[in-house]
Design brief:
Length: 295
């Protein structure tokens, strides 16, 4: 295991409720100008979980499993409670249903979706059937402030130490070999680029250039895949930097709208190339965290 400061991290409760699907405009206009009516963000998605394909669905930005939002209405703090839910929750955190027919059921945080500001939680299929919109989900948030003691130049974000321990990352000199399913060039990263922080949210892999998609095998992306974005530095915000490498997890489906695609929440980043991606088709959090037996 990599040496970390996990024993110094705070574990704290954050909570939200299952958010309703939302439709801001009936039509999604595709990158080729075609109007489409498609499901999108929010709700309980019964047939899409970590490990399933991110592409090929009649969908736009669909979130797998359960979409959670804190709707606490405090006029003094605005959206502060939901911001805390999104910033403090980390990929791999345990989540528990605290009311309703599924009370006591446990799930796992699998993503943080920017713009809509949802935390995404995976539950077994039998639990999804018992949940209803508005059920409250408690997350034991743990991971903010995680550091690699022996690799101070590599920054860790949005990650439960349990995921780091299970990921099979290996030291190689002053660098780390990191298992990923795909390499993604920074040139095709879209919505979310330029954000001034990466402690919440995601940014999207555009899949509109067929030659690039074929070259990098991106049509096989799955929800939960760990992917390396080359020439992307996420040390503070999301910027283009030659030689940098950032690795994140695919958190929602592909999109039809221009500038969008499967979203990626950042997990580790190196501005000077100290991350060496190693292709491993099983580098998906559904397998690594044992969320599903057959993945």
């Amino acid at each position: 295991m990599l040496k970390t400061n996990a024993e110094k991290l705070i574990k704290i409760s954050v909570m939200g409720e299952i958010a309703s699907p939302t439709i801001r405009s009936v039509y999604n206009v595709s990158a080729t100008g075609k109007p489409l009516v498609l499901p999108g963000v929010g709700g309980i998605t019964y047939n899409l979980r970590a490990g399933d394909p991110a592409c090929g669905w009649e969908a736009d930005h669909v979130e797998p499993g359960v979409s959670v939002e804190n709707k606490e209405n405090d006029v003094r703090s605005g959206q502060a409670a939901n911001t805390a839910l999104n910033v403090l929750s980390c990929i791999g955190n345990k989540a528990t249903v605290v009311n309703g027919d599924a009370k006591g059921a446990e799930g796992t945080v699998t993503g943080k979706h920017g713009g809509i500001e949802h935390v995404l939680v995976d539950f077994p299929s039998e639990v999804l059937e018992k949940l209803v919109l508005g059920d409250k989900i408690l997350v034991k948030a743990f991971g903010v402030g995680l550091q690699l003691v022996d690799f101070p130049e590599i920054k860790v974000l949005n990650m439960d130490p349990a995921l780091l321990d299970a990921w099979s990352i290996k030291p190689k000199g002053d660098k780390l070999e990191v298992p990923v399913t795909h390499i993604v060039p920074a040139a095709i990263m879209g919505s979310g680029l330029g954000a001034n922080q990466v402690n919440s949210g995601d940014y999207d892999i555009q899949l509109f250039d067929k030659a690039v998609v074929e070259q990098y095998g991106l049509e096989s992306l799955r929800i939960g895949d760990l992917v390396a974005i080359i020439d992307a530095d996420h040390s503070f915000g999301r910027i283009y930097r030659q030689g940098a490498v950032s690795v994140g997890v695919v958190i929602h489906t592909n999109c039809v709208t221009a500038g969008h695609g499967p979203g990626v929440t950042t997990l580790i980043t190196s501005p000077d190339g100290k991350i060496i991606p190693q292709i491993n088709k099983k580098a998906n959090i559904a397998s690594i965290l044992k969320l599903r037996a057959y993945i």
